[in-house]
Amino acid sequence: MPNIHMTKMINLVCIMFSIISYVNSENRIGLKLSFLSSTSGMTGSSKFAGAFFTALEFINNNSSILDGYRLDYLFNDTRANSLDAIKAMTSQYGNDTIGFIGPDESCQCESTVAAAWNLPMLGYVS
Questions:
Q1: For residue 36, what are the β-bridge partners?
Q2: Domain ranges of the chain
Q3: Rounded Cα distance, 40 and 51, in Å
Q4: Using CB atoms within 10 A as the burial measure, which of 13, 56, 103, 116 is most buried?
Q5: What totals of helices (H) and strands (E) does the chain contain, helices first?
Q6: Could you tell me which CATH number the domain at 29-122 has?
Q7: How do strand 69-77 and strand 121-122 relate by DSSP bridges?
């Protein structure tokens, strides 16, 4: 059975590593990934949003995946409308996004815009 001093030391070491890990995560280069979704819930987009944010957290907490980088996100409600999606994409393109996830409705026009900018787009519905 460990004594009380050993337990305190283990706790202090864990706290120290947590602080170091937090500081190091702030020093990583942020890469912005755009998430295009409709909050209307017409396509079950809340499930995809949950998966998106869970994946971001997993990637950002695993330094062996993107060593020296972290994923940040940009989000806009597309309201299930292609024009709103393209407006959002244009805004996010101006904010240095590296690619798009979505939108959750049609993506024919949106994918053409992403291709014109030479940026990847991953559709999760269409």
A1: 76
A2: 29-122
A3: 17
A4: 103
A5: 4, 4
A6: 3.40.50.2300
A7: unpaired
